[in-house]
Amino acid sequence: MAVARIIHKGGSLQLAAACLAAAMAAGCAAVSSNPDATDAAGNHVSTLIPNKTYHVTSGLGLSVEYIVLGAALYWAIDPLAPNWELQQTPLGVDRVRISMRKKRFASGGDGEAGQVFARRAEQLARDGGYAGYTILEYTEGVESTLPLAQRVSQGVVHLDR
Description:
By secondary structure, the chain is an alpha+beta fold. 27% of the residues lie in helices and 31% in strands. α1 runs antiparallel to α2 (64-77). The protein is elongated.
C-alpha cells in the first residue's frame, strides 16, 4: 500500500537538536577546556562561545550566547513552517485516509483542522478528476506526546465520480 506524505521540515530530531543547542548556549560560561586560553586582546577566555557583544546600535548590544540561543529557538519553533503535517493513505480505488498532526510550537490555528482537511480532500478530488468528495469519517483530538502534546486529526474521504 502506497503512502504519500506532505511534511514540513522538522520533527523530533530537529527539536532535540535545538534543545541541545539551547542547553549548550545556556551553560557556556561553565565550560573551560584550557584555563590559560586568552583572546586576541589578552583577556582570559573560559567559554565555549566567545564572550563578545555585538553593538547593533549605540544603545543596543547583543551577546553571542544570546544570538546563538535565539537562533536555536527560532530553528526549533520555525514560525514560517506549515502548521500541519499531512499523511494520506489510499484505502482502495476511491477512498483515502487523511491523517494530520499539528506542529508542537504554533501560534494559533487550533480551529483550522477541519478547513485543512477539507482543502486536502478537495485537492485530491480535483487532481484525480473526480466530481467531488464525501467525508465518511472525521475525528479531532490531542495526543499526549513528549515534550508537548499535539493536536491530531484524521478522516476518510470517498472520492465521487
